[in-house]
Amino acid sequence: MGVTVVGAGIVGLLTAWRLRREGHAVTLVAPEVGRDATYAAAGMLAPISEVQYGQDRLYPIMTASRAEYSEFLAELARAVDAPTGWRENGTILLAADRSDRDAVADLVSVQQAHGMEVEPMTSSVLRRREPALAPGVSKGWDVPSDHQVDPRLLTGALAEALAAPLDPAAFPGAGPAARQLRETVVALERDDDGAPGGDADGGDDAGAAGRVAPRYRLALASGEELVDERVVLAPGLGYGRIAGIPRRHPLPLRPVHGDVLRLRVHSDQLAPGEEQLITATIRATVRGRSVYLVPRGDGGIVVGASSREDGLAGTRAGAVQELLDDAAAILPAVKDMELEEITTRARPGTPDDIPLLGALDDEPGVVVSTGYSRHGILLAPIGARLASALVGPPRSDAPRSGAAELSAADAALLASMDPARATPDDPSDPSEPHPVGAPDASGEPAAAGMSPGPTPVPPTPAQKG
């Protein structure tokens, strides 16, 4: 069976990889790899420290996906020798002052009530662990199981794995190298004119002989077309800009913008033998605002992230100021670091912050996987595995790779993420804002909610990783 995956963020890439592992012939279509929300993400795998009030239905999804990360990364390492930025460095929750301490303590009580491993730290232990922290930091809690990856490295490794020849002994039943097309899908419709025995675009797809007629036709911005039997739509906010089937199945996605900073620690800020100023990921509450500092292995620190829905696709100056002020309140050395990059991206949010994952009601060959908001990196493994299960087994004449049937737990997770739960009753209601990317009143396409790239702070050194 051929499968086209639309979108090459972390969710689309990992879904394509999973499908290839299950024996499918995969085509991945996206204008760029990992350049939208994934590009800005800090990569925290933090089902505990990411917990927020009122998100009880999200906890099981986060926890289940985090549990799959180690196996996924080990499998990826067998396919390609490429870095992923995986670091088992843990996370520390901090409160800047007494009022912040009460707020963090209340949230910690929620985490502990759900059986999560969060332990209070004495001041002496905190100082030994992270001596560079500001002296006035009020209180800390240790979350040893929340680690990190580097999304930019990870997306590169996945793209390489999709194209790499795979050892049949290590990857029995895997599909052929994926086709990766740098194109934009502008429309998707059911194809009623396909004929068996080959690709509509003339490609020599492996296993095409004897295949059943293609089912779906994808129109590309270049004017070309693809025809395939199954389609996974994982384009983030781009879902609403695809005509045809997606327009008839509107989803309440909204752009949730985030501004992220990348800093560089100078060697003169480090003691002899030190490689970083902080060892753990720091998640702090400062004057009621949240800020995180994620140390990279190359000496960089990622600071983020604002969360705003003000409609500004570019970077808000005040958000950058707040991030720097809050980060410096926790780690004073921030003021002397080099500001290498400011990146603004919009994440695909949903009304309840739960992703939208499932087959469309009247189009079982189309699987939707979007709406991961700020949890896309963490939730990618569970999203990819369940999307692959919804696509179904590969061609009947292809060797099976051992894809398991859905468990009761998986079925429950899918039920909680069912796109049908969030479909607007009347998408033409004028009181509702038009979907992201749909034409506005002037007839022009609405903004996608993405800035075209990172905002460098000149002079900017060459991008590392």
**Count of individual helical segments:** 10
Cα distance spanning the termini:
35 Å
Largest sheet: 9 strands, mixed
Residues in helix, %: 25-40%
Strand order of the largest sheet: 5-6-4-15-16-17-14-18-21
The rough form would be described as globular
What are the low-pLDDT stretches, counting only 5+ consecutive residues below 50?
Answer: 194-211, 396-404, 425-465
Q: Hey, roughly how much beta strand do the residues contain?
A: 15-25%
User: Would you report the number of β strands?
Assistant: 21
> For the residues shown, what is the average pLDDT?
86
CA-based gyration radius: 23 Å
Alpha-beta content class = alpha/beta
How does this model look, in words?
- The chain has a nine-stranded mixed beta sheet with strand order 5-6-4-15-16-17-14-18-21. A six-stranded mixed beta sheet has the order 8-2-1-12-20-19.
- It is of the alpha/beta class.
- The model is unreliable at 194-211, 396-404 and 425-465 (pLDDT under 50).
- It contains ten helices and 21 strands.
- It has helices spanning 10-21, 37-40, 59-79, 98-113, 123-129, 151-163, 245-248, 317-330, 376-391, 408-417; strands spanning 2-6, 25-29, 44-45, 91-95, 119-121, 139-143, 147-148, 179-181, 185-190, 216-220, 225-228, 230-233, 243-244, 254-264, 281-286, 289-295, 300-304, 338-349, 356-360, 363-370, 455-456.
- Helices cover 25% and strands 23% of the residues.
Give the SSE map:
Blueprint: E1 2-6, H1 10-21, E2 25-29, H2 37-40, E3 44-45, H3 59-79, E4 91-95, H4 98-113, E5 119-121, H5 123-129, E6 139-143, E7 147-148, H6 151-163, E8 179-181, E9 185-190, E10 216-220, E11 225-228, E12 230-233, E13 243-244, H7 245-248, E14 254-264, E15 281-286, E16 289-295, E17 300-304, H8 317-330, E18 338-349, E19 356-360, E20 363-370, H9 376-391, H10 408-417, E21 455-456
Parallel strand pairs: 1-2, 1-12, 2-8, 4-15, 9-13, 12-20
Antiparallel strand pairs: 3-7, 4-6, 5-6, 9-10, 10-11, 14-17, 14-18, 15-16, 16-17, 18-21, 19-20
Helix pairs in contact: 1-6, 1-9, 3-9
